[in-house]
Amino acid sequence: MGLKQLVKKGLGEMGFNAGGGAINWFPGHMAAATRAIRDRLKVADLVVEVRDARIPLSSANQDLQPHLSAKRRLIALNKKDLANPNIMPKWVRYFDSCQQDCMPINAHSKSSVQKLLELVELKLREAISREPTLLVMVVGVPNVGKSALINSIHQIASSLFPVQEKKKRARVGPLPGVTQDIAGYKIAHQPSIYVLDTPGVLVPSIPDIETGLKLALAGSVKDSVVGEERIAQYLLAVLNTRGTPLHWKHWNNRRAEGIQYDPAEKVEYNLKDLRPRRMKPPNASSVLYIEDLVAEVQHALYLTVSEFNGNVEDESDLEGLIEQQFETLQKALKIPHKASEARLMVSKKFLTLFRTGKLGPFILDDVPDS
Fold it and tell me: Which positions fall inside the CP-type G domain (predicted)?
């Protein structure tokens, strides 16, 4: 119960309301996009609903579910490279038990998207025999990778099909909700197949606080809505209640082998450059620097949990542990003790390591009993 109590405790401070009230971030263009999506759903032959593989249920747009379930639909669980590969097959089986087609994908991988397109074509085979023009719609909440998927589809389609018009790429932005306009792309001829890219539409009300926190942790809600510290606290609470840091005992085998970056080189690699779209891959020395940083973080959290005498199911014990971990992380992340906004700096760096998969693959949602 410790995690649930801790989550409930912050209700009044976080921009969410206990009864699943309005979230403080819902751009006007997204409300208009929701109406446009409903209109276009009527003519869509197939819908690809993109979700975040780390939150297969929490990243569903609940407002549109009744409309989507009435269509020929394929759920694409994107960012599978960041999701726990041991748990992912259980999610696929769960969706199978719901008679729902589902495929884990990596939108940046050509072979992964190729498999998705093959399944899309298979699902459309019935319609292909009847219709000269077919529409495929891509929908999902912000920042699940819809635009990245559209761009990969274009790269593949240009070599597969004789496309008539000049192809236009979907606009990809670094923040949730940035793909502004709904645009159609012709990806095949005879029959003509169009993929319509739609801005992600996050539900204006979130059913419970934990769903909101999961969306924030995965990056589908702007950090400023919830606050980086609150999101980092939630991540630590999840890791602690699952006992994840105890699996990080063998924290730095590479250092034991005597391989490490040379601190004399004064590596100044910014963790922000790890994020997609930054297009600044780390050099060899920076890779070692990041590995050492991750090892320090994992070892620090392992020590705090292994030496913890309290009960993670108890709210106050869990709060105390998280406070201690913030101090430990500040040292591990080499943030000056007297730095102003030190907790915010700790939170941002810690969240970047999680979101880029450096702390390992995770799935935050629990598989429902089928």
Answer: 34-204
